[in-house]
Amino acid sequence: MSDHGLELRYRRLMMAYPAAYRREYEDEMLGVLMAGTRPGRRRPSLADSADLLRAGLAARLGQGLRAARGQEWRDAAAVAGLLGALVLAIVPLRRLVMGLSAPYAPASDQLIEVGARAALWLLVVVAALAGLRRSAAALALTALAGEAVAIGLRTPVEEFRIVRMLWVLMVGLLVVAMLALARRGGKVTSVLSRRRKDLRVLDRVMVLLTAFATVPFAQAWAELATGVTFTLTLTPGTLVAAVAFVAGLPIVTSGLAMAGLRARENRRVLARSKNS
Amino acid sequence: MREPTFLVLTALAEEPQHGYAVLEDVARMTGGRVRLRAGTLYSALDRLKTEGLVEVEREEVVQSRLRRYYRLTGLGEKLLAAESARLREQAALADARLRVRQQPGGSPA
Fold this sequence. Notes:
heterodimer, A: 2 domains, 82% helix, B: Arc Repressor Mutant, subunit A, 3-stranded antiparallel beta sheet, 4 helices
């Protein structure tokens, strides 16, 4: 029966929707879709297919965002964001200390640059630790802008500077995103000092840290693959490839970690419902 | 309020309707200009349901297919009335300005 084939194709398209949404609406939507199809038609129209895919993916995205706004993710983001800001403060701080204690001092403008960058991220750390969540997010954005300015100032003498510093921009972007998410979460000190550690929050901290942890690898591969450290020049192609690496890899790995976490928690819920 | 939302609420204003009837009604009301598709319709219905503007009135099974009839809630009615008033005001404003423009001696552009 041709109706059957068409119905099957509609059902397949509706796989774009989250399972809960399908349970609620699939049969009903199928009725609407079949009623709206000319008799004898074997395949869904292109417009209907595109509409189903778009609406399905939008529903999935909406579900994901709602989940990310959960309290546990906010708490985890507060912890991970603080750690990220700490790294961004420590790296230039170390350069500053090394520069000051070197037998022949590097140019003072370079010392000022690393000092300013360290100071900006330290402010973020202090604000987060003080529980000033909104200020921490705003300061992180300022510090990220500061990093961009620092790269811009150095570009005339070091054309490929932006590629070498991509990791800073990516980590900075992640910190801004996490602290923005954590604005309405618990204070990071109270999350960290809870006597009974919440495993669900810890799991989520780990997922977020996966993104940070991947950045150095992505940076090293981006430099190797594009060869900027040898050629010392920059082409638009090199830049695009490097950005794709440094931004893409952390997104992929943390996405995988998130999927793994969700699968594990779903299994746990299932096991519990079987036991009861 | 975006146009599809406005049209779906308008389609449900008089009496409860099922999904396919809403699609046909919207096409009829707009003279065929707006043809909602199933995915768009159910995104709107799902959102309106969560916001408490529409609710399921009854379910039927017709030719072994599930049919849900949706109706406007009290909140939905209030919101649609407010949106309708807003659109009317805007239209009146535009009309008034156009009248000034078309009057002889009125300031052009």
